[in-house]
Amino acid sequence: MAKMLVKRIRQGNNSTLSEIYVDDVMISYGLEDAVRERKIKGETAIPAGEYPLILNTYGAMNARYKRKFQAVHQGMVEIKEIPNYSYVYIHIGNHIGDTAGCLLVGQSWELIEGDYELRRSKKAYIALYQKLIKLMAKEQVFIVISNEVNK
């Protein structure tokens, strides 16, 4: 069983910045909405915990990514079994307006007017995606989301 760790490191006004590790190696930064006690649809970070990853091969987002990343795309990496959440993906994006409750990835970050933004998201996505696809072909992969956030 392989694990991907999302280690939350900073909380912005409405954003949560993390470091993403696979096999104990930092691969990219992550961005989510704010961590909240009560879920607000499309505006709340994924609850801390451990969840299985699957490949979702249907839907509009899958079709878009199939066109955009033809050379590598085999399906959207979906985070499953999150209570009260559905269709939570790992995908590209730069700021919390792109998250819709999902996990974004980037190679670097900036703090802009109190919230975190990612940079070079496509490059980070391809690197992480290729690593996850290789692991998922061999074994079940779980994502572990830490609950520690520095303000």
Q: How many E-type strands?
A: 10
Shape type? globular
**How many individual helices?**
2
Judged by helices, strands and strand pairing, the structural class is alpha+beta
Q: How much of the sequence is in beta strands?
A: 35-45%
What is the helical fraction, as a range of percent?
Answer: 10-25%
For this entry, what is the oligomeric state of its chains? single chain
**Alpha carbon gyration radius:** 14 Å
The poorly predicted ranges are: none
Distance between the termini: 32 Å
What's the main sheet like?
8 strands, mixed, barrel
Sequence of secondary-structure elements: EEEEHEEEEEHE
Quick check: average pLDDT? 93
Query: Largest beta sheet: what is the strand line-up?
Result: 1-2-3-7-6-5-4-10
List keywords for this structure.
two-stranded antiparallel sheet, 151 residues, 10 strands, alpha+beta, 41% strand
Descriptive account of the structure:
By secondary structure, the chain is an alpha+beta fold. Helices cover 18% and strands 41% of the residues. It has two helices and ten strands; from the N terminus they run ββββαβββββαβ. β8 and β9 form a beta hairpin. The mean pLDDT is 93.
